[in-house]
């Protein structure tokens, strides 16, 4: 089961005790997945909600029954496009029932339908939570958190998506909108923001799973950073040691190590014999112990001496050619 399905299964089982919260969630589902017909001239009325998720269909059906106690028709069929998956259409067709729902959800004004979030529907904090939960149930999805953090709600109406962003950001989230084809997608991209979202919609089991995954992911990332850092330091140390040995051998083969001062000669011989030792270890091997910075300073002197010998040799060759 995908993480999106896990969230929806959990939140589908959450039925608010208060009628106003149930109405808020019904309003969200209708706004996101509903088609409303309210034509007094042709005497045609209906609310149809379409979903591919049986948990969402069951939740919407239960909310309507508990809140309005009306007749509801559920039609199940296999989709021709979605790998023959089942799709669910939930219908309310009687004028009196349609009117009752639309008026309760504040979607009907002067016998005209308005897809919107009326402030009265989300006046209470619990109703805001219920509304956001309904939008995710109807049109939300989340990527697998072991790969990336991304939660989105696909909305067909720009004005409604802007209202939804304002509603989510009331809970200190940082929701944003991106246009994708003809849809306005409300999204969150940070793990902490998604954790807050799950807390708001009261998906506490999914929240704990996500937190555990985040902790494991952070631990793996920290271990990788440490390993990469140590590997880089080892490579740097080895490269420096190779250059030092090349310089010492050049001095040895051209003018001899005896041309170095006593302290530099002792260190040069130690470096040749202990190519894998760290600067700290080399300093401890000297007849008079020296710290890491002192060893580094002496090796740089040796390197500068070798470089001056190379330059002198090049100048000598150039003089001969002339």
Structure description:
The structure is a single chain. The protein is α+β, with helices and mostly antiparallel strands and 322 residues long. The chain has 2 domains: 191 residues, Homing endonucleases (Endonuclease I-creI), CATH 3.10.28.10; 93 residues, no CATH class. It is built from 11 helices and 10 strands. A hairpin with a 7-residue loop joins strand 3 and strand 4. Helix 2 packs across helix 3 and helix 10 packs across helix 11. The radius of gyration is 36 Å and the shape is rod-shaped. 30% of the residues are buried. The mean pLDDT is 89.
Q: What structural category arises from helix and sheet content?
A: alpha+beta
Largest sheet, spatial ordering of strands: 1-2-4-3
C-alpha-based Rg, rounded: 36 Å
Name the poorly predicted regions: none
Sheet bearing the most strands, described? 4 strands, antiparallel
Which oligomerization state do the chains in this entry correspond to?
single chain
Tally of individual helices? 11
Question: What is the 3D shape?
Answer: rod-shaped
Give the strand tally: 10
Query: What is the total domain count?
Result: 2
Helices and strands, in N-to-C order? HHEEHEEHEEHEEHEEHHHHH
Write down the CATH topology of the largest domain: Endonuclease I-creI
Q: What gap, in angstroms, lies between the N and C termini?
A: 81 Å
**Strand-residue proportion:** 15-25%
Helix proportion: 55-70%
CATH superfamily of the largest domain: Homing endonucleases
What CATH architecture of the largest domain would you give? Roll
What top-tier CATH class of the largest domain fits best? Alpha Beta
């Amino acid at each position: 089961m995908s993480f999106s399905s896990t969230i929806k299964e959990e939140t589908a089982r959450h039925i608010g005790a208060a009628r106003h919260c149930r109405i808020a969630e019904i309003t969200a589902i209708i706004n996101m997945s509903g088609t409303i017909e309210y034509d007094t001239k042709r005497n045609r009325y209906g609310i149809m909600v379409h979903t591919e998720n049986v948990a969402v269909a069951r939740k919407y059906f239960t909310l309507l029954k508990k809140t309005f106690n009306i007749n509801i028709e559920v039609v199940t069929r296999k989709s021709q496009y979605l790998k023959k998956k089942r799709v669910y259409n939930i219908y309310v067709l009687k004028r009196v029932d349609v009117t009752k729902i639309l008026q309760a959800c504040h979607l009907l004004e002067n016998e005209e339908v308005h897809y919107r979030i009326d402030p009265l529907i989300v006046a209470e904090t619990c109703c805001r939570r219920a509304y956001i939960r309904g939008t995710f149930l109807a049109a939300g999805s989340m990527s697998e958190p072991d790969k990336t953090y991304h939660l989105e709600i696909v909305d067909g109406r720009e004005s409604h998506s802007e209202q939804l962003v304002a509603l989510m950001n009331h809970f200190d989230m940082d929701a944003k909108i991106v246009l994708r084809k003809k849809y306005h997608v409300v999204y969150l991209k940070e793990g902490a923001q998604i954790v807050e979202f799950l807390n708001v919609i009261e998906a506490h089991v999914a929240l704990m799973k996500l937190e555990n995954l985040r902790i494991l992911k952070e631990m793996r990332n920290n271990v990788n950073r440490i390993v990469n850092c140590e590997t880089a330091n080892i490579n740097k140390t080895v490269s420096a040691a190779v250059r030092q040995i090349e310089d010492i051998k050049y001095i040895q083969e051209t003018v001899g190590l005896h041309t170095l001062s006593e302290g530099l000669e002792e260190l040069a011989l130690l470096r040749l014999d202990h190519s894998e030792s760290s600067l700290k270890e080399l300093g401890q091997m000297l007849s008079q112990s020296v710290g890491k910075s002192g060893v580094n300073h002496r090796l740089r002197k040796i390197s500068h001496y070798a470089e001056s010998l190379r330059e002198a040799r090049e100048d000598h060759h150039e003089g001969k050619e002339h």
